[in-house]
Every structure is written in C-alpha cells, then in structure tokens.
Design brief:
With about 400 residues, the protein is α/β, with parallel strands linked by helices. It folds into 2 domains: about 90 residues, no CATH class; about 270 residues, Rossmann fold, CATH 3.40.50.10880. Helix content is about 45%, strand content about 10%. It has 17 helices and 7 strands. Bound molecules: 6-O-phosphono-beta-D-fructofuranose (F6P).
C-alpha cells in the first residue's frame, strides 16, 4: 500500500492502493481475484464467449490496464463517471476500494449477468452460497437457537448480537483464501473483541421501548445473514424496534454479499428448520415472514451499495433514510472500510470522528479482515502489535463501535 498521489487533505491518512507487493490489498488483486475467477469458471457450464471473457478479464486485471464497460452496458455512463481518472491505469495503482468494486462489476459482465439472455440474473456465487446454506453447520447453528427460546430479552439480545457479529467471520471470500477451511469454534473462542460499545447500542433499543426504527446494512449471505435475520426478529419481537429496514446489494458482489434472493433463501431456511428439529428457528422464520407481510420488515437494494465509494459521499435519498433511523447497524469489513474511509488510519484515530459524516447514530459490527482500523485505545494497539498475530486481516478479532451524526 502506498499513498495516493493526491490525498484530499493534508490531515487524511493514505488511501489504500494495491501496488505494494506483499501487502494485503496487493494479495487480493494479484491472487484472490484470479483464484476466484477460476472457481467461478468451474462452477457453471459456461460457453466459449464466457470463457474468453474470463480469460480477457484475468489478463487485464493482472497485467493490463483498466478498461471501461463495453458500449451498450446499461450502466456504462455511471461507471464512466465513477471511474474518471482510473481508466487506462493499472488495477494496482488505483484505490483498492474502487478496484475491488469494479472487478465484481466486470466479472458479472463477463458472464452475461446483466444482458438479456439465458445467463441474465444467474448469481455466479450461487453454488457456493447454496452449499453453505445446506451445510450441517447451519443445522447445528439453527438447533442451538432452541436454548434461547423463552429467555429474557436481556439474555437473548447480547447473545444474538454476538452471533450476528461473529457471523461476519463466515464470509465465502475469506474462506476461498483459507483453503476452504470453515472458521472453527475454537478459533471463535480464542478470538477477541478489540472494541465493545454494545452497551451504547442497547441503550438506544430498550426492550418494550418499541418506538425505534432500525436500519441494518447487510453483508454476507448464509451464515452471516441468518444470524442477522434472527437479530432483526429479536428487535421486533422483544419490542426494541417498531420497524426494521434491511439493506442488501442490488447484484452479487464480493463473492457472498446478500442480495434479495439470499434473503428469501435464508428466510426459507429458517422457516423450514422444523424438519431439523430446530423449533425456535422455525418460529423465528414464520415471524419474519409475517413481518415482511405487514411491513415491519422492509428490504431495500439501493445501487449505492455496489458503488466503489465510501459512505461520506452517499446520495441524498439514502442519507435521508439513515437520518430517520434510531440507529443503523452496519455489518462487515467492507462496510467498515466504506464507513471510515479506506485509508491507513492510525488505529487510535477516533471512530466517532471518522463517522461524524453519517446522518444518524451508527453501529459497526465487524470482524477484522483488512488493514483499516480506527477507534482503538493505545494499550489495545500495543497488545495486538506485540501478539505477532495478523490481527488486522485474519478475521480472528472483531469490534462493535458506535458513532454517527445527530
Ligand atoms: O464480507 P466482508 O466482511 O465485508 O469482508 C470483505 C473483505 O474481503 C475482501 O474483499 C478480501 O478479503 C476485503 O478486501 C474486504 O474488506
């Protein structure tokens, strides 16, 4: 990672680029993306045009320069504006956040996802998501919910918040890199919260308070989205919230990010959990189904969630929506990068300062999977650095941080 040549202001930390060999960002562009292209290629019986487009994308992203979208692409103008100054440059020399986002747009384009035809709307990551949803691990996690049935809201709330937080560890992109290994329970129990401001979150959502409007910006499908939905059910059922708005991606993104069709699959998985004798999960699934029907749970898929920018430049419509929320819960590593800015901040940079742009209270729930970090105290940073672990990027550590505007 190196500093962008023209940082917006002298006070800002360097924008993360991918041009330092051995850095995390470089590894994603040079190794993770090519591996992903091959995994997607093998997962479907694609035809010659798609294989050729994948070959070209692989060559361009690793050795070539950034090309604009093809003439006739429905969003060519939008990306032409979003990518000004980046086209014609190496993928490694532009902001990492931009390069990753455009890579997913281009990958889907190579496969015919956006064009009218037989492959339109086919999620290239669908087989990976489906396998995860079918897994025995999910059976076990759903069955374990029975232990929480009938417990007090003050017991259920923290347990379900923790499940939603650590669910972020189970992202498919992360697993592609770790040789397909599932994050183990042992790894989870060894893991540490580097910041925990959950008390401030709960103070906004008292059980029985029932006036709150909560927005949840989702991250991964499957083993993350299910605990997110269970947490949402808890907020509604315990009277902590009167309505919840769940924000998902408008198209498949970052391997396993949730789309509307993933929400449907996860809600079905919950509602049908009865067959695995997971009675409470099935009850939760039915309640969520009902909440969708009567409008207490609403799903939105704004195009900005697949835009290559931090949240401080979100469009006005979205800004107004978040301004009306009692609190917005923002899930995952990518959303954290977009929230605080994808820069090499000093880890002690106050989180509140970085998210002052957000139009209302915001809670970040994230396992650490990239270099960006803010809001840590000096002792915590010293201990983490002394540990010798890859604490910023390995997903073994997590945080709950609160901040936001008025
Ligand atoms: O699913 P999450 O938690 O947003 O994690 C996504 C992270 O994975 C990567 O795409 C690659 O590891 C990171 O660059 C990114 O921040």
């Amino acid at each position: 990672m190196t500093a962008d040549a023209t940082p917006p202001s002298a006070d800002d930390a360097p924008v993360i680029l991918g041009n330092e060999p051995g850095s995390f960002a470089w590894g994603v562009l040079a190794k993770r993306h090519p591996a992903l292209v091959e995994q997607v290629r093998d997962a479907f019986p694609y035809g010659p045009a798609q294989h050729a487009a994948l070959d070209a994308l692989l060559e361009e992203t690793t050795h070539g320069v950034i090309e604009p979208l093809a003439a006739g692409a429905h969003d060519r103008e939008r990306w032409a504006a979003w990518g000004q100054g980046h086209f014609g440059r190496s993928w490694f020399d532009v902001p990492f956040l931009w390069a990753e986002s455009y890579f997913y747009r281009r990958l889907l384009g190579a496969l015919g996802y956006f064009e009218p035809g037989p492959w339109q709307g086919i999620d290239p990551f669908g087989p990976f998501k489906a396998a995860e949803l079918r897994s025995a691990t999910v059976d076990d996690e759903l069955a374990a919910l029975d232990e929480l049935a009938g417990r007090h809201a003050d017991v259920q709330g923290p347990a379900l918040l923790g499940a939603s937080l650590w669910g972020n560890r189970a992202d498919l992109g992360f697993r592609l890199d770790s040789g397909g290994a599932q994050p183990s329970t042992a790894a989870r129990t060894d893991s540490r919260l580097v910041a925990d401001e959950s008390a401030a979150l709960w103070s906004l959502l008292p059980a029985g308070g029932a006036a709150a409007s909560v927005h949840v910006v989702a991250d991964n499908a499957g083993r993350e989205l299910i605990p997110d939905l269970v947490l949402i059910d808890h907020l509604l059922h315990a009277g902590r919230a009167v309505e919840v708005v769940l924000h998902v991606k408008p198209y498949p993104y970052y391997v396993s990010d949730s789309t509307m069709s993933d929400v449907v699959d996860s809600m079905r998985r919950l509602a049908r959990a009865q067959v695995q004798a997971a009675r409470y999960a099935a009850e939760i699934g039915r309640r969520l189904w009902g909440a969708m029907a009567d409008g207490r749970l609403v799903v939105r898929a704004h195009e900005f969630f697949c835009a290559p920018f931090p949240y401080d430049v979100m469009p006005d419509g979205l800004r107004e929506e978040f301004a009306g929320a009692t609190v917005t819960i923002v899930k995952g590593d990518l959303n954290y990068r977009r929230l605080v800015g994808d820069r090499l901040w000093e880890p002690t940079t106050p989180f509140g300062e970085r998210v002052a742009h957000f139009p209302g209270p915001v809670a970040a729930l994230r396992t650490l999977k990239s270099d960006v970090i803010t809001g840590l105290d000096r002792d915590t940073v010293a201990a983490l650095e002394a540990s010798g672990q890859a604490w910023r990027t390995s997903g073994t550590h997590a945080l709950i941080q609160m901040g936001g505007g008025p």
